[in-house]
Amino acid sequence: MKEDKYIWEEFKNGEEYALSYIYHQNVDFLFFYGKKITKDEDLILDIIQDLFYELIRSRKNLGKTDNIRLYLLKSLRRKLIREINQQQKYEENYRGVEVQPNIIFSVEEDLISTEEKSHRLELVKQG
Predict the structure, then answer these.
(1) How remote is the C-alpha of 127 from its chain's centroid?
(2) Residue 46 and residue 65: Cα distance in Å, rounded?
(3) What is the pLDDT of residues 35-76, one digit of tens each?
(4) Residues contacting 1, CB < 8 A, separation 6+
(5) Is 9 exposed, middle or buried (0-12, 13-18, 19+ CB in 10 A)?
(6) DSSP state, 125?
(7) C-beta of residue 30 within 8 angstroms of C-beta of residue 72
(8) What is the CA angle 38-42-47, rounded to 5?
(9) What angle do CA 89, 90, 94 make, to 5 degrees?
(10) 3-class secondary structure for 53-72?
(11) What digits encode the pLDDT tens for the residues 66-98?
(12) What is the pTM of this model?
């Protein structure tokens, strides 16, 4: 598409209207495509936001494209699958593992805690 080539080059050159155009022409389509991969709508929205942030951040280094939507769909798919895989690895590694904080209290903190418990016990007895 000639129009996609032109808009993409304008975007790469820093034209704000081009970014706005690309976003508004594709965001709904990206969201519905993401729902085919996962039902986690918050994850989809986060990945779309990350995708556009990365595009803006690296716009000078982006290659050419004559199909912006296809470029965005491939990028979204890659990012979603990567994130889902990371979440699954995390869940597998920590499933059933009870996380215990490794907190060491000082002698003073133990003494204060003991005194507070004694004071509360006295209040209950009086009360």
Answers:
(1) 52
(2) 24
(3) 999 999 999 999 999 999 999 999 989 999 999 999 999 999
(4) 66, 67
(5) middle
(6) H
(7) yes
(8) 75
(9) 115
(10) HHHHHCHHHCCCCCCHHHHH
(11) 999 999 999 999 999 999 999 888 777 766 666
(12) 0.69
Q: Which of 9, 37, 38, 36 is nearest to 22 (CA)?
A: 9
Tokens of 53: 């942030």
Q: Which two tokens stand for residue 125?
A: 């007895």
> Which token pair is 123?
């209040």
> How far is C-alpha 115 from the chain's CA centre?
45
Q: Give the tokens for residue 91.
A: 């869940």
Name, in order, each residue with C-beta under 8 angstroms of 44's C-beta and a sequence gap of 6 or more: 31, 34, 35, 37, 38, 80
Contact criterion met (CB below 8 Å) for 48 and 34? yes
Chain centroid to Cα 79, Å, comes to 10
